[in-house]
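Page 42, continued from yesterday. The earlier attempt failed because a stray header line got pasted into the input along with the sequence. Redoing it now with the clean sequence only.
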Amino acid sequence: MAEINPQGYFTQDPALGGGTGAMSYLLDPSDPAGAYKALLAGTLYPKSTYNYENLTSRSPFTSGGPFDLLPTGEGATTLGMGYINPIFGLLTRGAISGRNAEALETLANQGILQTITPAEASSGFRKFMGYDYTPGTGEYRLSPAVELAIESSGGTPKEYFESQYKSQYGDASDLARYLDQIAYTTKGEFFQTDLFGNPTSWSKYVDRSGKIRPDALENWKKFGAEDKMGVLKYFKKKDQGTLAGTTDQGTIGGGEQISTPSQSSGGGKGPTLFKGPDGIMRENYIGTGATDDKGRTILSKMVRDNRGINSLKDRVSKRGGMGGV
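This time it went through. C-alpha coordinates are written below.
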Protein backbone atom coordinates (compact mmCIF):
# COMPACT_ATOMS: atom_id res chain seq x y z
CA MET A 1 0.00 0.00 0.00
CA ALA A 2 1.22 3.48 -0.87
CA GLU A 3 2.19 5.80 1.94
CA ILE A 4 -0.78 7.64 3.42
CA ASN A 5 -0.36 11.35 4.12
CA PRO A 6 -1.89 13.18 7.12
CA GLN A 7 -4.32 14.91 4.74
CA GLY A 8 -6.03 14.08 1.48
CA TYR A 9 -6.91 10.37 1.72
CA PHE A 10 -10.63 11.05 1.31
CA THR A 11 -10.49 14.57 -0.15
CA GLN A 12 -7.95 14.19 -2.96
CA ASP A 13 -8.36 12.23 -6.15
CA PRO A 14 -6.15 9.09 -6.24
CA ALA A 15 -4.45 10.50 -9.34
CA LEU A 16 -3.31 13.44 -7.20
CA GLY A 17 -1.98 11.33 -4.35
CA GLY A 18 -5.22 10.72 -2.47
CA GLY A 19 -6.67 7.42 -1.31
CA THR A 20 -10.30 6.81 -2.17
CA GLY A 21 -11.11 10.43 -3.01
CA ALA A 22 -14.67 9.74 -1.83
CA MET A 23 -15.07 13.32 -0.57
CA SER A 24 -12.99 15.06 -3.22
CA TYR A 25 -16.01 17.18 -4.15
CA LEU A 26 -15.06 19.38 -1.19
CA LEU A 27 -12.01 20.52 -3.17
CA ASP A 28 -13.43 20.23 -6.69
CA PRO A 29 -13.97 23.76 -8.10
CA SER A 30 -16.66 22.43 -10.46
CA ASP A 31 -18.73 21.46 -7.38
CA PRO A 32 -20.41 24.21 -5.28
CA ALA A 33 -18.59 23.00 -2.15
CA GLY A 34 -15.17 23.19 -3.80
CA ALA A 35 -16.08 26.47 -5.49
CA TYR A 36 -16.91 28.06 -2.13
CA LYS A 37 -13.64 26.69 -0.77
CA ALA A 38 -11.70 28.23 -3.67
CA LEU A 39 -13.49 31.56 -3.25
CA LEU A 40 -12.35 31.71 0.38
CA ALA A 41 -8.87 30.23 -0.09
CA GLY A 42 -8.18 32.46 -3.09
CA THR A 43 -9.57 35.60 -1.39
CA LEU A 44 -11.68 36.25 -4.51
CA TYR A 45 -14.54 37.95 -2.65
CA PRO A 46 -14.83 41.79 -2.37
CA LYS A 47 -12.71 43.28 0.39
CA SER A 48 -15.46 45.37 1.95
CA THR A 49 -19.21 45.91 1.94
CA TYR A 50 -20.56 48.19 -0.82
CA ASN A 51 -17.31 47.68 -2.78
CA TYR A 52 -18.46 45.14 -5.32
CA GLU A 53 -15.89 45.54 -8.06
CA ASN A 54 -15.65 42.91 -10.76
CA LEU A 55 -14.15 39.62 -9.60
CA THR A 56 -11.50 37.76 -11.59
CA SER A 57 -9.60 34.52 -11.18
CA ARG A 58 -6.46 36.32 -10.06
CA SER A 59 -5.83 35.72 -6.35
CA PRO A 60 -4.16 38.55 -4.45
CA PHE A 61 -0.70 37.91 -3.06
CA THR A 62 -1.25 40.06 0.04
CA SER A 63 -4.11 40.57 2.47
CA GLY A 64 -3.09 43.53 4.60
CA GLY A 65 -0.52 44.21 7.27
CA PRO A 66 2.06 47.03 7.19
CA PHE A 67 2.14 48.55 3.70
CA ASP A 68 -0.17 45.69 2.58
CA LEU A 69 2.78 43.29 2.57
CA LEU A 70 1.31 40.44 4.62
CA PRO A 71 0.87 37.52 2.17
CA THR A 72 -2.27 35.45 1.91
CA GLY A 73 -1.99 31.72 2.59
CA GLU A 74 -1.82 30.87 -1.09
CA GLY A 75 0.43 33.86 -1.75
CA ALA A 76 2.88 32.48 0.80
CA THR A 77 2.68 29.04 -0.84
CA THR A 78 3.44 30.54 -4.26
CA LEU A 79 6.35 32.56 -2.93
CA GLY A 80 7.74 29.51 -1.12
CA MET A 81 7.61 27.35 -4.23
CA GLY A 82 9.16 30.18 -6.23
CA TYR A 83 11.98 30.43 -3.74
CA ILE A 84 12.77 26.74 -4.30
CA ASN A 85 12.55 27.11 -8.05
CA PRO A 86 10.99 29.98 -10.06
CA ILE A 87 9.38 27.48 -12.41
CA PHE A 88 7.63 25.80 -9.46
CA GLY A 89 6.32 29.19 -8.41
CA LEU A 90 4.87 29.86 -11.86
CA LEU A 91 3.27 26.43 -12.00
CA THR A 92 1.73 26.90 -8.56
CA ARG A 93 0.37 30.29 -9.53
CA GLY A 94 -1.04 28.84 -12.75
CA ALA A 95 -2.75 25.98 -10.91
CA ILE A 96 -4.36 28.38 -8.43
CA SER A 97 -5.60 30.66 -11.21
CA GLY A 98 -6.98 27.69 -13.14
CA ARG A 99 -8.86 26.46 -10.07
CA ASN A 100 -10.21 29.96 -9.46
CA ALA A 101 -11.49 30.27 -13.03
CA GLU A 102 -13.43 27.01 -12.65
CA ALA A 103 -14.79 28.05 -9.25
CA LEU A 104 -16.07 31.45 -10.41
CA GLU A 105 -17.90 29.87 -13.33
CA THR A 106 -19.46 27.29 -10.99
CA LEU A 107 -20.67 30.02 -8.61
CA ALA A 108 -22.09 31.97 -11.55
CA ASN A 109 -24.04 28.88 -12.61
CA GLN A 110 -25.38 28.66 -9.05
CA GLY A 111 -26.67 32.26 -9.18
CA ILE A 112 -24.21 33.44 -6.52
CA LEU A 113 -22.29 35.52 -9.06
CA GLN A 114 -23.29 37.40 -12.19
CA THR A 115 -21.23 37.01 -15.35
CA ILE A 116 -20.04 40.35 -16.73
CA THR A 117 -17.52 39.01 -19.24
CA PRO A 118 -17.76 35.28 -20.09
CA ALA A 119 -14.61 33.25 -19.52
CA GLU A 120 -12.94 31.84 -22.62
CA ALA A 121 -12.77 28.11 -23.08
CA SER A 122 -9.37 26.60 -22.43
CA SER A 123 -7.22 25.05 -25.13
CA GLY A 124 -3.93 23.30 -25.66
CA PHE A 125 -1.99 22.15 -22.60
CA ARG A 126 -4.49 23.69 -20.18
CA LYS A 127 -7.33 21.79 -21.83
CA PHE A 128 -5.20 18.65 -21.64
CA MET A 129 -4.76 19.20 -17.88
CA GLY A 130 -8.54 19.16 -17.43
CA TYR A 131 -9.29 22.90 -17.12
CA ASP A 132 -12.40 24.12 -18.94
CA TYR A 133 -11.75 27.88 -18.74
CA THR A 134 -8.82 30.21 -19.35
CA PRO A 135 -7.78 32.16 -16.24
CA GLY A 136 -8.08 35.93 -16.35
CA THR A 137 -10.62 36.03 -19.17
CA GLY A 138 -13.85 36.08 -17.17
CA GLU A 139 -15.24 38.89 -15.00
CA TYR A 140 -17.99 38.52 -12.43
CA ARG A 141 -19.95 40.44 -9.81
CA LEU A 142 -21.91 39.31 -6.80
CA SER A 143 -25.55 38.75 -7.67
CA PRO A 144 -28.01 41.40 -6.37
CA ALA A 145 -29.50 38.86 -3.96
CA VAL A 146 -26.08 38.09 -2.44
CA GLU A 147 -25.20 41.79 -2.19
CA LEU A 148 -28.44 42.40 -0.31
CA ALA A 149 -27.82 39.41 1.97
CA ILE A 150 -24.33 40.68 2.86
CA GLU A 151 -25.62 44.18 3.61
CA SER A 152 -28.49 42.80 5.67
CA SER A 153 -26.16 40.58 7.69
CA GLY A 154 -24.17 43.57 8.91
CA GLY A 155 -20.92 41.67 8.33
CA THR A 156 -18.18 41.72 5.73
CA PRO A 157 -18.23 39.72 2.49
CA LYS A 158 -15.62 37.42 3.97
CA GLU A 159 -17.74 36.75 7.07
CA TYR A 160 -20.80 36.13 4.93
CA PHE A 161 -19.14 33.55 2.69
CA GLU A 162 -17.44 31.86 5.64
CA SER A 163 -20.82 31.50 7.36
CA GLN A 164 -22.39 30.15 4.16
CA TYR A 165 -19.62 27.58 3.73
CA LYS A 166 -19.82 26.50 7.36
CA SER A 167 -23.61 26.14 7.34
CA GLN A 168 -23.71 24.18 4.07
CA TYR A 169 -20.46 22.22 4.06
CA GLY A 170 -18.91 22.64 7.50
CA ASP A 171 -19.99 19.23 8.84
CA ALA A 172 -18.82 17.42 5.70
CA SER A 173 -15.49 19.26 5.83
CA ASP A 174 -14.97 18.37 9.50
CA LEU A 175 -15.87 14.73 8.81
CA ALA A 176 -13.43 14.55 5.90
CA ARG A 177 -10.64 16.05 8.03
CA TYR A 178 -11.38 13.53 10.80
CA LEU A 179 -11.39 10.56 8.41
CA ASP A 180 -8.17 11.74 6.77
CA GLN A 181 -6.53 11.61 10.19
CA ILE A 182 -7.99 8.16 10.91
CA ALA A 183 -6.68 6.89 7.57
CA TYR A 184 -3.23 8.25 8.42
CA THR A 185 -3.06 6.85 11.97
CA THR A 186 -4.47 3.42 11.04
CA LYS A 187 -2.51 3.19 7.76
CA GLY A 188 -5.77 2.63 5.92
CA GLU A 189 -6.88 -0.28 8.13
CA PHE A 190 -10.39 0.72 9.15
CA PHE A 191 -11.03 -1.92 11.80
CA GLN A 192 -14.66 -1.95 12.91
CA THR A 193 -13.99 -3.15 16.48
CA ASP A 194 -11.19 -2.59 18.97
CA LEU A 195 -9.24 -5.20 20.95
CA PHE A 196 -12.11 -5.51 23.44
CA GLY A 197 -14.77 -6.05 20.78
CA ASN A 198 -16.22 -2.56 21.07
CA PRO A 199 -17.12 -0.65 17.88
CA THR A 200 -14.45 1.85 16.87
CA SER A 201 -15.53 5.49 16.69
CA TRP A 202 -14.97 5.65 12.92
CA SER A 203 -17.06 2.52 12.22
CA LYS A 204 -20.09 4.84 12.20
CA TYR A 205 -18.68 6.62 9.14
CA VAL A 206 -16.75 4.08 7.05
CA ASP A 207 -16.85 0.32 6.55
CA ARG A 208 -13.88 -2.05 6.80
CA SER A 209 -12.71 -1.22 3.27
CA GLY A 210 -12.86 2.54 3.88
CA LYS A 211 -16.07 3.13 1.93
CA ILE A 212 -18.12 6.05 3.26
CA ARG A 213 -21.37 4.86 4.82
CA PRO A 214 -24.62 6.37 3.44
CA ASP A 215 -25.55 7.78 6.86
CA ALA A 216 -22.03 8.97 7.71
CA LEU A 217 -22.87 12.68 7.66
CA GLU A 218 -25.97 12.23 9.81
CA ASN A 219 -23.97 10.20 12.31
CA TRP A 220 -21.27 12.88 12.34
CA LYS A 221 -23.82 15.53 13.26
CA LYS A 222 -24.83 13.39 16.24
CA PHE A 223 -21.48 12.04 17.43
CA GLY A 224 -18.78 14.06 15.66
CA ALA A 225 -18.15 16.56 18.45
CA GLU A 226 -17.32 13.69 20.81
CA ASP A 227 -15.53 11.41 18.35
CA LYS A 228 -13.05 14.03 17.19
CA MET A 229 -11.86 14.39 20.80
CA GLY A 230 -10.28 10.93 20.51
CA VAL A 231 -9.25 9.37 23.82
CA LEU A 232 -9.95 12.66 25.62
CA LYS A 233 -13.68 11.92 25.50
CA TYR A 234 -13.20 9.10 28.04
CA PHE A 235 -11.56 11.48 30.51
CA LYS A 236 -14.40 13.94 29.96
CA LYS A 237 -16.98 11.28 30.79
CA LYS A 238 -15.00 10.29 33.89
CA ASP A 239 -14.83 13.91 35.08
CA GLN A 240 -18.56 14.36 34.55
CA GLY A 241 -19.25 11.23 36.57
CA THR A 242 -17.04 12.49 39.40
CA LEU A 243 -18.82 15.83 39.48
CA ALA A 244 -22.22 14.16 39.51
CA GLY A 245 -21.33 11.86 42.42
CA THR A 246 -19.27 13.97 44.83
CA THR A 247 -19.51 17.70 44.17
CA ASP A 248 -21.39 20.09 46.46
CA GLN A 249 -22.00 23.76 45.71
CA GLY A 250 -19.92 25.92 48.04
CA THR A 251 -22.01 26.86 51.09
CA ILE A 252 -25.24 25.05 50.17
CA GLY A 253 -27.15 24.38 53.40
CA GLY A 254 -26.09 27.75 54.78
CA GLY A 255 -29.27 29.55 53.82
CA GLU A 256 -28.77 30.30 50.10
CA GLN A 257 -31.94 30.41 48.01
CA ILE A 258 -32.04 27.85 45.19
CA SER A 259 -33.98 28.55 42.00
CA THR A 260 -34.94 25.72 39.66
CA PRO A 261 -36.93 25.78 36.41
CA SER A 262 -39.83 24.01 38.15
CA GLN A 263 -39.91 26.65 40.88
CA SER A 264 -39.34 29.77 38.82
CA SER A 265 -41.13 29.02 35.56
CA GLY A 266 -43.53 26.22 36.37
CA GLY A 267 -41.73 23.58 34.32
CA GLY A 268 -38.49 21.70 33.90
CA LYS A 269 -36.85 18.75 35.59
CA GLY A 270 -36.58 18.69 39.37
CA PRO A 271 -33.73 17.40 41.57
CA THR A 272 -33.30 13.74 42.51
CA LEU A 273 -32.00 12.24 45.78
CA PHE A 274 -28.82 10.17 46.04
CA LYS A 275 -26.48 8.99 48.79
CA GLY A 276 -22.77 9.75 48.37
CA PRO A 277 -19.85 7.48 49.38
CA ASP A 278 -19.68 9.36 52.70
CA GLY A 279 -23.25 8.37 53.58
CA ILE A 280 -24.61 11.88 53.19
CA MET A 281 -27.92 12.33 51.39
CA ARG A 282 -27.88 14.94 48.64
CA GLU A 283 -30.16 16.36 45.99
CA ASN A 284 -28.73 16.09 42.46
CA TYR A 285 -29.41 19.29 40.50
CA ILE A 286 -27.38 18.43 37.38
CA GLY A 287 -29.46 19.00 34.27
CA THR A 288 -32.10 21.08 36.07
CA GLY A 289 -30.59 24.49 35.36
CA ALA A 290 -30.71 25.38 39.07
CA THR A 291 -28.74 28.45 40.20
CA ASP A 292 -28.04 30.14 43.53
CA ASP A 293 -28.79 33.77 44.38
CA LYS A 294 -25.51 34.79 42.67
CA GLY A 295 -26.34 33.05 39.40
CA ARG A 296 -23.91 30.15 39.91
CA THR A 297 -24.94 26.70 38.67
CA ILE A 298 -25.91 24.27 41.45
CA LEU A 299 -24.64 20.69 41.11
CA SER A 300 -25.88 19.20 44.36
CA LYS A 301 -27.18 20.17 47.81
CA MET A 302 -26.96 18.41 51.14
CA VAL A 303 -30.33 17.29 52.51
CA ARG A 304 -30.92 18.06 56.18
CA ASP A 305 -33.91 17.46 58.45
CA ASN A 306 -35.64 20.14 60.52
CA ARG A 307 -32.84 20.00 63.09
CA GLY A 308 -30.17 20.50 60.44
CA ILE A 309 -28.91 16.92 60.88
CA ASN A 310 -27.85 14.77 57.91
CA SER A 311 -25.16 12.15 58.53
CA LEU A 312 -23.88 10.15 61.47
CA LYS A 313 -21.09 12.67 61.84
CA ASP A 314 -23.67 15.43 62.25
CA ARG A 315 -25.54 13.46 64.89
CA VAL A 316 -22.35 12.84 66.90
CA SER A 317 -21.38 16.48 66.59
CA LYS A 318 -24.83 17.72 67.66
CA ARG A 319 -24.61 15.59 70.80
CA GLY A 320 -21.18 16.94 71.62
CA GLY A 321 -19.28 13.70 70.99
CA MET A 322 -16.01 12.99 69.21
CA GLY A 323 -14.70 16.48 69.81
CA GLY A 324 -17.06 18.17 67.34
CA VAL A 325 -16.21 16.06 64.27
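Notes: Confidence is low (pLDDT under 50) at residues 246-267, 311-325.
Reminder to self: strip header lines before submitting.
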